[in-house]
What we know:
The protein is of the alpha+beta class. It is built from two helices and four strands, in the order αββββα. Strands 1-2-3-4 form a four-stranded antiparallel beta sheet. The termini are far apart.
Amino acid sequence: MRENDMLEKDEIFSKVLRAGRRTYFFDVRATKADDYYITITESKKFTEEDGSFHFKKHKIYLYKEDFAAFSEILEEMTAYVLNNKGEEVISERHQKDFKREYPLETISDEKPVAEKSFTDIDFDDI
């Protein structure tokens, strides 16, 4: 049997979630004994200085006996984050046009802690 035929047999049901540079793959797969389990794969794209890119992948195998506990903890953790930090995405602070809306942190009674300075060069400027 060809390798592609084996892959098609193993993957029973799949969903994809694209989230910026990250892509999450949720796959139901079959064991040799024809039982099902889930794999969750995070694939993240990294671009090299020369313009080439590669993907780093991380995979979790989730078996039926762990579904209930996994689901319960995942629900608890997501609720905790949303209840304590809301649904606002704060990653825009990593954008080059981000403006800080609050003062720098201070250490005891000292002057504010300065951020490291750097030169922000856009690829188009070169």
